[in-house]
């Protein structure tokens, strides 16, 4: 194997006409910095594939916008734009993989911002030929009460002081790399759930005996915003929990209902513990901590309602898409 394997990067991106360039521009500039840093170590110029869910006609607009926002990216990488009209999250990723080149495929989302050393740390374990998957550390950024609360209750570890949780983190589809030959032959599975496919892919890796290498390759993800997103994301979190339980354990309906109650208790206790123990490090004032706890418990109560309703057959298992009323999140 070559000392420095050839890699490509797949970036999932929304329809070009609805992008918040104030957020995405910083991520593109940070990506260019990371590529330049590893290129200085001898890595070949990579291909960056941007996979978006708009029509093919948006490609030229998107390319022009990226070039204007982050011209330094064009200096260090070859950019390819590919459309997957109305594609959902994992469909965009699978679509992008088809145009990659080299030995390694790195996944990054448009609403994440790589931190110094991210790409180098993500690529380094692939020097070992047995490495198939390397998983980075994604955390939520925060700057106000609600974003701090989301960072505390979310399924990402905190940026610091959360080593135990971070050591057990699942695959981050927005910050992970695979051997190209493996991910081409094992795309993210098609599934009705919103964020279920990465869990299914993780279990597929483990069934084949591959170890997931967790490294300190950090990106931060912009925090979700707004009560409409809060309400919808909580319900879909619960429905996805039921879908994962069904996919991995094939339980009876009564077992699914019992699981919805046990998970409600588990997540309520986890939320209480995390808010009380980690809130001070976010800079949250003491007087806000009880309110943060109430918001967190409300989130997982809504998640329970989503979980129970699907488990009990009160709602049908339909394909999850982000509804129009949620808006940008």
Fold and architecture overview:
The chain has 329 residues and is of the alpha/beta class. It folds into 2 domains: 7-221, Spore Coat Polysaccharide Biosynthesis Protein SpsA, Chain A (Alpha-Beta Complex), CATH 3.90.550.10; 227-311, no CATH class. Helix content is 47%, strand content 16%. It contains 12 helices and 8 strands. It has helices at 21-39, 58-69, 71-76, 89-97, 118-123, 145-153, 163-167, 180-185, 197-207, 227-249, 253-278, 289-311; strands spanning 7-13, 47-52, 78-83, 104-109, 112-114, 133-140, 175-179, 212-221. Strands 3-2-1-4-7-6-8-5 form an 8-stranded mixed beta sheet. Helix 10 crosses helix 12 (289-311). It is globular. The termini are far apart. 43% of the residues are buried. The mean pLDDT is 93.
Would you kindly provide a brief summary of this structure?
This protein is an alpha/beta fold.
Show the helix and strand layout.
Blueprint: E1 7-13, H1 21-39, E2 47-52, H2 58-69, H3 71-76, E3 78-83, H4 89-97, E4 104-109, E5 112-114, H5 118-123, E6 133-140, H6 145-153, H7 163-167, E7 175-179, H8 180-185, H9 197-207, E8 212-221, H10 227-249, H11 253-278, H12 289-311
Parallel strand pairs: 1-2, 1-4, 2-3, 6-8
Antiparallel strand pairs: 4-7, 5-8, 6-7
């Amino acid at each position: 194997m070559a000392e420095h394997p050839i890699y490509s990067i797949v970036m999932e991106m929304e329809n070009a006409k609805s992008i918040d360039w104030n957020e995405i521009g910083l991520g593109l500039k940070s990506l260019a910095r990371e590529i330049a840093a590893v290129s200085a170590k001898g890595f070949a110029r990579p291909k960056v594939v941007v996979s978006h869910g708009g029509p093919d006609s948006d490609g030229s607009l998107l390319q022009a916008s990226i070039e204007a926002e982050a011209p330094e990216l064009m200096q260090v990488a070859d950019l390819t734009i590919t459309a997957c009209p109305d594609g959902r999250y994992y469909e965009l990723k699978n679509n992008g993989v088809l145009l990659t080149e080299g030995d390694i495929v790195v996944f990054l989302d448009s609403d994440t911002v790589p931190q110094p050393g991210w790409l180098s740390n993500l690529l380094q374990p692939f020097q070992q030929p047995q490495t198939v998957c390397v998983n980075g550390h994604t955390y939520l950024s925060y700057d106000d009460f609600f974003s701090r609360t989301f960072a505390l209750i979310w399924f990402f570890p905190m940026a610091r002081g959360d080593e135990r949780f971070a050591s057990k983190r699942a695959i981050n589809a927005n910050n992970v790399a695979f051997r190209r030959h493996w991910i081409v032959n094992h795309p993210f599975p098609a599934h009705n759930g919103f964020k279920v496919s990465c869990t299914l892919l993780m279990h597929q890796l483990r069934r084949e005996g591959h170890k997931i290498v967790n490294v300190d390759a950090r990106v931060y993800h912009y925090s979700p915003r707004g009560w409409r997103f809060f309400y919808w994301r909580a319900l879909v979190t619960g429905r996805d929990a039921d879908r994962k339980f069904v996919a991995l354990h094939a339980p009876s309906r009564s077992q699914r209902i019992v699981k919805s109650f046990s998970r409600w208790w588990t997540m309520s206790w986890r939320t209480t513990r995390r808010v009380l123990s980690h809130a001070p490090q976010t800079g949250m004032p003491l007087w806000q901590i009880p309110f943060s706890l109430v918001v967190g418990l409300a989130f997982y109560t809504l998640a329970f309602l989503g979980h129970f309703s699907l488990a009990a057959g009160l709602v049908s298992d339909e394909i999850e898409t982000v509804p129009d009323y949620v808006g940008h999140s």
